[in-house]
Design a protein that fits this description.
This protein has about 700 residues and is mainly β. The protein contains 2 helices and 45 strands.
Length: about 700
């Protein structure tokens, strides 16, 4: 039949299936994205496995690998099979973000064959975690005055979420009136904190920052941490000085320990930087005493003398113990008020004043001035006179002083021949309370003026007498004729006398010693010469202007020596003159005795003068003769001692103008035959004994 091509036959061949195919899934792996917040029991469909076999060799069951999160739910409804994963435990991506499962499909063949499907459950993140800082409290130390922009600390925070849910930004949380956000800034991405303001330990010893970390999830989650910034003190504040003056002026006699000012010191720094020491710059009579903690007192620490230093500029310095050390200063001016502790002072203890005799009354003879280093009333000086001279003439009648200016006035005109010197004291007194004073000794010396003409001494000065001298015709040249003696009440050059002679014209027989007054012959007599020679003798002093006295003498030429009468005549002494002389001598003796006794008491007696002690009594000239041939001549208050040898023809005379020599006492020595003189100076008030 087979070979009969013309016949068609239908043949059914039944192929008996054998389990030669294993179940297979259309894909090798299945990825499921499941959020971590999925609800329990939520199902997720899985693909079905296919098996070409049929019948019992088809896929008969599914198995899920063991796990804690999912179970397998296989549904076979009306030949429709569904395979689903069922969530049996809440997912947590932060614990297990990825779950690997294996789904196995098994057929019914013998032996059974299977196929697998890899299921990857990707747990999707949900922003269910807040950022977490690595520390809840950060501590950091920074120096005050740290430079702006300096980095001090970097914060770190983590978020278990992922993606945008784990992106963190940082910020500083403002807290009330805190200025922390003004002092610091933070990088929002890195969490690096930097300085943006001036950090001052004295304002904030520590700064607390609140830093927030926030993710970018929806809704965003955040957390905070505390950053404690401890500011380290730097010695950037000098000590502050406050001086409160108790008295800008203190007396120069203030006692040691007297408080002058209060000093308060403060330093904003801390620790050693705030420990302050106070002292005074330089050497001044003040010191700083500590009262309590940073309170001090400025007190007197030495003697004060306004006359040396009238005010003090006291520099007070306060220095802390920081490194480097800082300091500040304050200057306080203290004025020293005057106390009357200085007496007026004269430039010298003794003042010599030379006053010309016959000066007009009322003239200023000198001006005294005392200095008082005190001021104001304490330096206001008044002057008064104090008489310590024992002269009979009261001081008040001679001198006056201007109490304010110290000008000395003469109240009378002085006569050198009556009073040669006197002494008094000037007292300078200030106006302080109590007042102080000092004195100045003033010696007034009356200087001589040429106000007295020379006086020719007896025997050629007797009133009404005829001055005649006889010489022999045989007299040789140089024959001694006569000796003219004269005195001058002045002193010094004013009492230095010169003798001149005038003869009849053409004779030229006689000459006179200009200083001795001795008249001698120039030549022998001739028959042509006159028998009587009238001579005019002039005695002149050396004052300015010069004063003079004249006398006339007749020289008679006789034949022999027997006819020559004595050259010296007895001076007729009246009883009244001798009586007056005795009175003067008695007064002189008493005065000398009193002066001698006073000389034993003190220095003043050493200035006593040999005088008859009377300035107001005057008498006519008296000449007394002594046994040795000396003559004593007294006029007014001046006494002259003239000493001769027993040989009146050749004699020396020494004339002392006064028993109380002035500053320029004159000693005139006249030697026979010589026209010479010797002038000797002595100190004021010194006494010269007559020769």
């Amino acid at each position: 039949m087979a070979h009969n091509p013309l016949s068609l036959y239908r043949i059914e061949i039944h192929i008996i299936d054998i389990n030669d195919n294993a179940p297979s899934f259309p894909i090798s792996s299945q990825v499921l994205n499941v959020t971590e917040v999925s609800s329990l029991g939520e199902k997720f469909s899985l693909p079905l496995a296919e098996d070409p076999d049929s019948g019992n060799n088809e896929v008969k069951s599914y198995k899920l690998s063991p796990n804690e999160y999912f179970s397998l739910d296989v549904q076979n409804v009306e030949q429709s099979v569904t395979v689903e994963l069922v969530l049996i435990k809440a997912l947590d991506r932060e614990k297990q973000p990825l779950i690997h499962l294996t789904l196995t499909a098994v057929d019914g063949g013998k032996p059974a064959m299977s196929g697998t499907l890899e299921i990857i459950v990707n747990v999707l993140d949900v922003n269910d975690n807040s950022p977490v800082f690595s520390k809840s409290l950060y501590k950091v130390k920074v120096n005050e005055n740290i430079a702006l922009g300096s980095q001090i600390i970097s914060l770190s925070a983590s978020d278990l979420d992922e993606g945008i849910n784990s992106d963190i930004t940082f910020s500083i949380v403002k807290q009330g009136s805190s200025k922390a956000s003004d002092l610091f800034s933070i990088d929002p991405d890195s969490g690096l904190i930097t300085v943006k303001g001036n950090i001052d330990y004295e304002e904030n010893a520590a700064v607390e920052l609140r830093v927030e970390a926030k993710d970018k999830g929806q809704p965003p989650k955040s957390s905070q941490c505390k950053v404690l910034v401890e500011v380290v003190d730097v010695n950037d504040n000098p000590p502050e000085l406050m001086v409160t003056s108790l008295a800008n002026t203190i007396k120069e006699d203030s006692k040691i320990g007297t408080a002058v000012a209060l000093v308060t010191i403060s330093d904003k720094d801390g620790g050693k930087n705030g420990v302050v020491h106070c002292s005074i710059v330089g050497q001044v009579p003040f010191k700083i005493e500590s009262s309590y903690k940073n309170y001090y007192s400025l007190v007197v620490d030495g003697a004060l003398d306004r006359e040396e230093i009238a005010h003090f500029n006291i520099t007070i310095i306060a220095t802390d113990e920081g490194t480097p050390s800082l300091s500040s200063t304050s200057v306080i001016t203290i004025h020293i008020s005057d106390v009357n502790d200085n007496a007026p002072r004269f430039p010298e203890a003794v003042m010599n004043v030379f006053l010309k005799e016959n000066s007009p009354a009322g003239a200023i003879i000198a001006t005294v001035s005392a200095q008082d280093p005190d001021i104001n009333t304490n330096a206001h000086i008044s002057y008064t006179l104090i008489s310590r001279d024992k002269t009979v003439i009261p001081l008040i009648s001679m001198i006056d002083i201007n109490s304010e200016s110290g000008d000395l006035y003469s109240k009378q005109s002085f006569n050198y021949e009556d009073l040669k010197s006197f002494q008094f004291e000037i007292q300078a007194t200030d106006s302080g309370l109590p007042s102080l004073s000092s004195s100045l000794t003033v010696n007034v010396f009356i200087t001589d003026e040429n106000d007295n003409s020379p006086v020719i001494l007896p025997p050629y000065s007797d009133p009404g007498s005829v001055n005649t001298e006889n010489i022999p015709y045989s007299a040789e040249a140089g024959y001694f004729v006569a000796k003219i003696r004269a005195v001058d009440a002045d002193s010094g050059y004013n009492a230095l006398l010169s003798y001149y002679i005038s003869e009849p014209k053409g004779t030229n027989v006689f000459r006179i010693g200009s200083s001795t007054g001795e008249i001698k012959t120039k030549r022998r007599m001739s028959d042509n010469d006159l028998r009587t020679h009238p001579l005019i003798i002039t005695v002149s002093d050396n004052g300015e202007p010069s004063l003079s006295a004249t006398m006339s003498m007749d020289v008679v030429v006789v034949e022999s020596l027997d006819d020559i009468k004595t050259s010296f005549r007895e001076v007729p002494v009246k009883e009244e003159s001798f009586s007056d002389l005795n009175v003067y001598l008695l007064i002189a003796i008493v005065s000398v005795s009193v002066i001698f006794l006073l000389s034993l008491v003190g220095l003043i007696a050493a200035k006593c003068y040999r005088t008859d002690g009377s300035f107001s009594r005057y008498s006519a000239p008296v000449i007394s003769t002594h046994p040795d041939g000396s003559w004593s001549f007294s006029k007014s208050t001046q006494q002259y001692d003239v000493c001769f040898s027993s040989d009146t023809i050749k004699s020396d005379v020494v004339v002392f103008p006064s028993p109380f020599p002035p500053a320029d006492a004159e000693l005139i020595s006249i030697n026979s035959g010589e026209d010479t003189f010797t002038r000797t100076q002595t100190l004021p008030n010194s006494e010269k004994n007559p020769v």
